[in-house]
Design a protein that fits this description.
By secondary structure, the chain is α+β, with helices and mostly antiparallel strands. It has one domain. It is 32% helix and 17% strand. The relative contact order is 0.22. The C terminus is likely disordered.
Length: 248
Amino acid sequence: MWQYLSNVFSYNLKGSELGITNDLIFKIVNFYGGRNSNCEVYAFNDQVYENKRGADIDLFIEDNKTGNYYFYMLQSKIMNHRGKYLEIKPWSPRAQYYKLIRNAKIENALPLYLFYNGQTSKIRLNISNFGLSIVNATYIRDIVNFQRIKKINQSINYDRLAFCMSPLHILFCKPTSDFVSQGTINRNDIYLNYPYRNISSLSKEDYYYTKEYNKKNQTNRDILDTIKNRHLAPFRIIINNHKILNKI
């Protein structure tokens, strides 16, 4: 991701947040090659109210000790060729970061921003690990609120976030305190009433909606009710750690 955006920025061009998110999902699915026992990737193709939920990706990582899952709600933002994140809007009680934080609290998840970064004329740090970086959403909220109080009218840039930014892969290793979820959820609750389709499985039987969902929802009316009542993220990723470790 770092190299791709660095090349794009070298021509003073901008990347596409949606395009990179889709490319990221593709690379994950392609890497696992349908081995969905290790990593399951689900997509929701109908109308998604991501602007209400505040998250692009719901990420679940299994805890090896308990078998439950840490839940991370990720909102993606892309850097521009000047090192700024123009899509982080000024302070508002209806802003995306507030929705992300509020909904994550309700669902026992940790709200994170996922940043797509690259090297620009303003940023000379050649640290490819930071091509995919995370920041706790509470920092984003506090920074934007500080700018409002101090009447600072400028976009948040990479340098402003560098002190609290970590590579995405830290979630799969040993997260620092900023990235440790306060609780876990049971696997049986992950898909409860969610009409996602499995795109990580090579089995045609698993291609459409999850079996858990099909057992509980049999009609289109049920699907519409779910969409209205539960603001869905476009993608869900489940990492089953104990199954990966057992195969190493």
